[in-house]
Write a structure and sequence with these properties.
The protein contains 5 helices and no strands. It is an all-alpha fold.
Length: 146
């Protein structure tokens, strides 16, 4: 018998966690972070809740990364500036618009500085989403919405 192989029955031969270990881990996450499903006794429904949460989180991270990757929109900025210098645009409105644009630019700069972190999080959540999909496939067959 090869002594390098895991003796843990929850692990597969390649050393990766087995389905039971993954299922327990993701059910624990689902109970911590998800709204209870209609049937809280159903492990499958908990996994579906976690699937929905992870899917939304991956989409959120993708949108944040897409926004920071594209940088400021030059055309939009140019049109805002042209609009602000119009004579009919009152000074208080101009000041409010400047504050709003400054706030959005500040957010864009902060997101850009955090882009590496959000990319890491997106990859991590995407990996978790794929694990949950494997679990759902294993317990439900081939559900069309996985």
């Amino acid at each position: 018998m090869d002594s390098t192989k895991s003796k843990n029955p929850a692990e597969q031969e390649n050393g990766e966690p087995g389905l039971n270990t993954l299922k327990k881990h993701y059910l624990d996450l689902a109970h911590r972070f998800c709204t209870p499903p209609d049937n809280p006794q159903s492990e499958t429904e908990w996994l579906w809740e976690l699937h929905s949460l992870l899917h939304g989180t991956v989409k959120l991270m993708a949108h944040l990364n897409e926004h920071t990757a594209s940088g400021p929109k030059n055309i939009g900025n140019r049109h805002c500036i042209q609009f602000m210098i119009q004579e009919s645009f009152s000074a208080p409105d101009r000041h409010q618009l400047v504050r709003t644009i400054t706030s959005w630019i500040g957010l864009s700069v902060k997101l850009a500085t955090l882009r590496n972190r959000t990319l890491e999080l997106q990859r991590e959540y995407d990996g978790q989403l794929n694990d949950v999909r494997k679990l759902l496939y294993a317990c439900c067959g081939n559900p069309g919405t996985v």
